[in-house]
Amino acid sequence: APWQALDGAPLAELSGDQDFQLFLHKNLEFTRKIKGDVDVLQHAVCETFQLCKEEELLLVRQDLGIPQAPLEQCHRRTFQTEACFSQIRDGLRTYQGSLAAVLKLLPGHTGLVETLQLDAANLSSNIQQQMEDLGLATVTYPTEGPGPLPTFSSDFQHQVGGFFILANFQRFLETAYRALRHLARL
Fold first, then answer.
1. Whole-angstrom Cα distance, residue 55 to residue 22?
2. What is the CATH number of the domain that holds 24?
3. Cα–Cα distance, 83 to 148 (Å, whole number)
């Protein structure tokens, strides 16, 4: 059948699908909201611990082993919706767990961190549901780096670790946002 050849196509045939477009627009807004919440927490880390500039902390970062969730499938010239969605979904799950370190670091922002964890879980679920609705193959990529939270041997390492979890999450969300916007424009 001729439609079988479209399995790896970037889903341009869905560009007119109103449900898919609605999904994209809702989740673009949701991603923007999550990015804003991460930004608030980044400012809290900056204000509370005077940890504001990534370049000043690079040496400590090397020792901590804070993983960056991969999104290379959302960058490539051979962009494939299934692979990109799978990486966004998996990355959101990673950051949802990593935020536990931030929760311990910023007890005065517990409500926001918990909301962020819930939002990351909901966005991941939205993407999973959309993949199922579209009949896309769900691919699970192995996570790079350790799965559990890194262990911090000092308060300072914990503070720097929280800083980098938020910085990595912010970069991840920016890439995810660009990928969703790209699909909305097809």
1. 39
2. 1.20.1250.10
3. 24
pTM of the predicted protein model: 0.84
> Could you tell me if residue 9 is inside a domain?
no
Residue type, 165: I
Question: Quick one: which H or E segment has residue 43?
Answer: helix 18-49
Q: How far apart are CA 24 and CA 109, in angstroms?
A: 29
E-assigned strand segments in 8-49: none
Range of the domain at 110: 20-60+92-184
Place of tokens 């609605």: 22
- The residues near 113 (Cβ < 8 Å, ≥ 6 apart) are 41, 99, 102, 103, 106
Domain assignment present for residue 51? The answer is yes
pLDDT in tens, 103-130: 999 999 999 999 999 999 999 999 999 9
**Does residue 130 lie in a domain region?**
yes
Is residue 87 a part of any domain in this protein?
no
Give the residue among 93, 95, 73 at the shortest CA–CA distance from 82.
Answer: 73
**Residue 64 to residues 46, 61, 83: CA-CA distances in angstroms?**
19, 5, 29
